[in-house]
């Protein structure tokens, strides 16, 4: 059984099925995360999103409604709070795509860069305030947690992003799920790869844009990424000095196309 299936099974066992259809104002944080997981399990495959389907999904709409007035300050621990903001970002990025498209006409944006202010000016209500994706990420989440791993968890609806899991983040799964997402991200040659002959490590632009986050405390990029590489790559990087180059970012929408 694959890692994803194991996590999904664990999550499904814990979902209180009676919550579906309940008012979003009366559900708990755990139940809200379960609603988002339900929507993602139905409409996210290999990191790609079925936007036409999730735009109509009642569980997804209920999570967004709950998100408007939820109070993360009341959450019991840091991991739950981190899961809250990761789930918020990923859900709002999807909703940004939906409201920027024309679902009634079955027209979907080709890229988030085609939408003026997708990250910087388009706001949605979360935790009682109107936030852009940039403000949520850079002014709320990162100052609070100061954790570079969040760059693996935030998915901006582009193909070059790390994969969106088919489940919500929770306090129980956030560490192992981020590790798995990071590992899959670094194993994907379209996003990151090592050319041993040229002794060149080609990395995602994410590691260029946010390099200071990964290199804090005197670490190099290779130091930070080493735990997420396979053993062969780790050994090569330990025995050889490599140059780092950054790959072009593919901003095309992470749309799951119908077969």
Describe the protein:
- The chain has about 260 residues and is mainly alpha-helical.
- The chain has 2 domains: about 170 residues, no CATH class; about 60 residues, no CATH class.
- The protein contains 12 helices and 7 strands.
- The strands form 3 sheets. It has a 3-stranded mixed β-sheet. A two-stranded antiparallel ribbon has the order 1-2. A two-stranded antiparallel ribbon has the order 3-4.
Q: Would you count the extended β strands for me? A: 7
Average of the residue pLDDT scores: 91
Strand content: 5-15%
The number of helical runs is: 12
> What is the succession of H and E elements?
HHEEHHHEEHHHEEHHHHE
Largest sheet: 3 strands, mixed
Q: Give the strand line-up of the largest sheet.
A: 5-6-7
Secondary structure: helix percent: 40-55%
Structural class comes to mainly alpha
Q: Which residue ranges are poorly predicted, with pLDDT under 50 across at least 5 consecutive positions? A: 1-24
Output the radius of gyration. Answer: 19 Å
Count of all domains: 2
Give the overall shape: globular
Characteristics of this structure?
single chain, 259 residues, 8% strand, disordered N terminus, two-stranded antiparallel ribbon
Secondary-structure blueprint:
Blueprint: H1 3-14, H2 29-43, E1 44-45, E2 48-49, H3 51-54, H4 58-69, H5 78-100, E3 124-126, E4 129-131, H6 133-145, H7 150-153, H8 174-187, E5 193-195, E6 200-203, H9 206-209, H10 211-214, H11 221-225, H12 231-239, E7 243-246
Parallel strand pairs: 6-7
Antiparallel strand pairs: 1-2, 3-4, 5-6
